[in-house]
């Protein structure tokens, strides 16, 4: 199930691409769906190349898309409903019964510029700390990564999640980590991710829809 050397397991919540990225409202629905799918593909690929990551567990409400990500090397489980944090808690419980030796890491699926080196640096920092930790997004108010031992795993994603995680006792991880912090919630975030340089699947879609030169 998790065959790479490493002590962390990435938990990746993935909505059906047809329902994702609603705040990219200037783009047609079909373009947003293609981008959401490509973002998740690039995140899975980056995670599986990052030092310290034993594997990726995708939790999704879209079985067909989860199968597509499984073909790239991810394990999968079904989203039980109840929202993002419930999905992550379910994924952590699922993983704990199979790999109690790993530490779960909740990661956003909308990080199309993610470099394995940025994720590896954050995980190395997390390994040196005791207790839960998180990574603030580029805007400083949200969260792109949260990690804790199974017994302490209580993600608080949503509006104001950085403050919520800090208030729960989780410590922010240091370092610039530009590609790990750059989530895409809106058109400004997409432009910033493009400026950093996206992964190949995202770049292919961006070229196809005219947002990158051919």
Describe what this molecule looks like in 3D.
The chain has 214 residues and is of the alpha/beta class. The chain has a single domain, classed as Spore Coat Polysaccharide Biosynthesis Protein SpsA, Chain A. It has 8 helices and 7 strands, in the order βαβαβαβαββαβααα. It has helices at residues 29-48, 63-70, 84-98, 116-127, 161-167, 178-181, 187-196, 200-208, and strands at residues 6-14, 52-60, 75-78, 103-107, 133-136, 143-147, 171-172. Helix 1 links the parallel strand 1 (6-14) and strand 2 (52-60). The longest helix is centred in the first third of the chain and has 20 residues, at 29-48. The relative contact order is 0.18. The mean pLDDT is 95.
Task: Give short descriptive properties of this protein.
single chain, 214 residues, Spore Coat Polysaccharide Biosynthesis Protein SpsA, Chain A, 7-stranded mixed beta sheet, 8 helices, 7 strands, globular
Mean pLDDT across every amino acid position: 95
CATH superfamily: Spore Coat Polysaccharide Biosynthesis Protein SpsA, Chain A
| Strands, count | 7
Q: What top-tier CATH class fits best? A: Alpha Beta
Distance between the termini: 38 Å
Helix-and-strand structural type: alpha/beta
CATH third-level topology: Spore Coat Polysaccharide Biosynthesis Protein SpsA, Chain A
What is the CA-atom radius of gyration, in angstroms? 16 Å
Shape: globular
Work out the count of structural domains: 1
β-strand amount: 15-25%
